[in-house]
Amino acid sequence: MFSFHSFRQLLLLKHKMTQLGFLQQNAFFIVKSYASTGFSESKHQQWQQEKHSFTLSYLINSCGLSSKSAILASQKVQLGNPDRPDSVLSLLKEHGFTNTQIAKLVRTHPMLLLSDPGKTLLPKIEFFLSKVGVSSSDLTRILTSSPLLLVRSLENHLIPCYNFLKSVLVVDEKVITTLKRSQLSFLFDVTNNMIPNI
Q1: What does the pLDDT look like over 29-46, one tens digit per residue?
Q2: What are phi and psi of 161, to 5 degrees?
Q3: What is the pTM of this model?
Q4: Predicted pLDDT of residue 47
Q5: What is the greatest pairwise CA distance in the chain?
Q6: Can you give the chain as a three-state secondary structure string?
Q7: Which tens digit of pLDDT belongs to each residue from 134-185?
């Protein structure tokens, strides 16, 4: 009986020593893992601060926003580098937008800076310019007043809206007059709003 009891105690002692050894061996990895996590969080925060600082600087220096407007706009968009926003600004300037108009566009809808200029913005600008009666100065004024026109889908919204208005107003000139006087009409949903109301 005594030998069995002693044998059992030896087994328990060995088990505890094994657990202790396991903890000792893995303590380094636990500490290292914790330190690594803390380091990555710190690096992430630093990166976020740098990104925010760059965004503010870009909005003020490249887009012409005031400090107050830049702070408000930076809550809606974060810029990692100047490549995409630079190409957006270049496209707008090439199509006659003034610095004041660009500042208003960015202030109203800062996410435009992350748009794809060639695939998203240019086709819409070309679509409106292709219509008789829309000059470059008309278009810059229209889009500055209603930057959401640059966000709406060309194929699924703008073209169907234009075609529907033309079917009602008959001639292109009247559709263009509508666009110039009330850009809101091009923001309505054709199927759910325009057709039922008319």
Answers
A1: 444 454 455 556 776 666
A2: -65, -45
A3: 0.71
A4: 55
A5: 109
A6: CHHHHHHHHHHHHHHHHHHHHHHHHHHHHHHHHHHHHHHHHHHHHHHHHHHHHHHHHHHHHCCCCCHHHHHHHHCCCCCCCCHHHHHHHHHHHHCCCCHHHHHHHHHHCHHHHHCCHHHHHHHHHHHHHCCCCCCHHHHHHHHHHCHHHHCCCHHHHHHHHHHHHHHHHCCHHHHHHHHHHCHHHHCCCHHHHHHHHC
A7: 889 999 999 999 999 999 999 988 998 888 888 888 788 888 888 888 777 7
Neighbouring C-beta atoms of residue 24, cutoff 10 Å: 9
Q: Which residues contact 51 (CB under 8 A, 6 or more apart)?
A: 78, 79, 80
The C-alpha atoms of residue 159 and residue 127 are separated, in whole angstroms, by 9
Q: Which two tokens stand for residue 45?
A: 């925060």
Structure tokens at 122: 């240019």
Separation between Cα atoms, residue 126 and residue 129, nearest integer Å: 5
Spatial neighbors of 168 by CB under 8 A, at least 6 apart, are: 198
- Residue whose structure tokens are 């094994």: 18
Identity of the highest mean pLDDT range in 36-40, 110-114, 166-170, 194-198: 110-114
